[in-house]
Amino acid sequence: MKNLLCIDVFEGIDYDRLFYMAKDIGFDGLFSGEIHGDDFESMKRVRRIANETGLLYEFSHSKIPGCMELWRNSGGGADYVKLLKRNIDNCARLEIPILVVHCQPEYQTEPDMALGLSYLEPVVRYAEDAGVKIAFENIDHPQCLLQTMAHFTDSHVGFCYDAGHEACRGYGYEFLPLVGDRLICTHIHDNDMVDDLHLIPFDGKIDWQRVTRQLKDCHYEGPLTLELRYGKFYEGVPETEFLQKSFDAVKCLREMMNGKEV
C-alpha cells in the first residue's frame, strides 16, 4: 500500500459517480464517510464499487453523533460503545481493515479520561478479535487524543492524522511529531485555519511544506487520503475538473514528501 492516493468527497457528489470518476482520473483507493459507518447496506454498495473499479477500500469512518458521550458521565457512553461495535462488525464483514474513530470530547470541557478509556477498552478488544484496526483521529481536544494513544499501545491501534482539524482545531499542537510513529491513515484537506472547510490542498492556508516534511520524518509510506467537500467554494466547477484538481494536489503532496521542489 505504498504511495497510494485515495479520496472521499462526503458532500456534493454521489458515490455512484464519485468513485468511478476517481478511478478514471488516477486515484488508487477510497473510504466511506461517517454517515455510512452504521449502515451496512450503504457500505456494501461501496464495497461493490471498490471491487468493480479495483480501488482499495482503505477504511470506514465510524458514526460521529454520540462520540462525546464517552467522555462525560451522562449514561450515553454505553450506547455509543454498542454503535462502535456495530461499525466494527460492518468492517469485518466487508473486509475493510481500519475503522477511524473520533477522539472528541465536548469542546472546551475537561473530559473524564478514566471514564472514556473504560468505555473504549472493550471496543479496542472487540476490534482485535474482529481483525479490524482502530485509528483514533485528532479533533478538538489534543490532550484527550494524546492520552488515549498513550493508553492503547496495542499493535492494532493507531493514529489517523487529520491535517484540517489540526489547522483549525489543534490549538497550536502539531500531532505528527508527537504520535506520528503510530500513523496508519490520513485525512488530507485544507481550510482558512478557522473553519473546518474540507478544501482541496493549496486552496486554503495550511503550510503543506511543514505537513509533508513531518509526514516524511515519520517515515510514513501509507496512502495520502483526501477528505473533501464539493460545496459552495467550488460552485460552478464541473465534477471532473474538481476531481482532477484534487488528484493533482494530492499527487503534488506526495512529490513534496519525496523531496521534489514545488
Strand order of the largest sheet: 7-6-5-4-3-2-1-8
CATH fold-level assignment: TIM Barrel
Q: What is the number of beta strands?
A: 8
CATH class: Alpha Beta
Gross morphology: globular
Looking at the overall shape, the CATH architecture is Alpha-Beta Barrel
Number of domains: 1
The succession of helices and strands, N to C, reads EHEHEHEHEHEHHEHEH
Radius of gyration: 17 Å
- Poorly predicted segments: none
Please indicate the percent range of residues in DSSP E strands (runs of 2 or more): 15-25%
The major pleated sheet works out as: 8 strands, parallel
- Report the structural category: alpha/beta
Mean pLDDT: 96
CATH superfamily: Divalent-metal-dependent TIM barrel enzymes
The helix count comes to 9
Straight-line distance between termini: 25 Å
* Helix proportion: 40-55%
Question: What does this molecule look like?
Answer:
The chain is of the alpha/beta class and 262 residues long. The chain is built from nine helices and eight strands. The protein has a single domain, classed as TIM Barrel. Helix content is 42%, strand content 18%. An eight-stranded parallel beta sheet has the order 7-6-5-4-3-2-1-8. The longest helix is centred in the last third of the chain and has 19 residues, at 239-257. The chain starts with a strand and ends in a 5-residue tail after the last helix. The mean pLDDT is 96.
Please render the helix and strand layout as text.
Blueprint: E1 5-11, H1 15-25, E2 29-32, H2 40-53, E3 56-61, H3 77-93, E4 98-103, H4 113-130, E5 133-138, H5 142-151, E6 157-162, H6 163-169, H7 176-179, E7 183-187, H8 208-217, E8 224-229, H9 239-257
Parallel strand pairs: 1-2, 1-8, 2-3, 3-4, 4-5, 5-6, 6-7
Helix pairs in contact: 1-2, 1-9, 3-4, 8-9
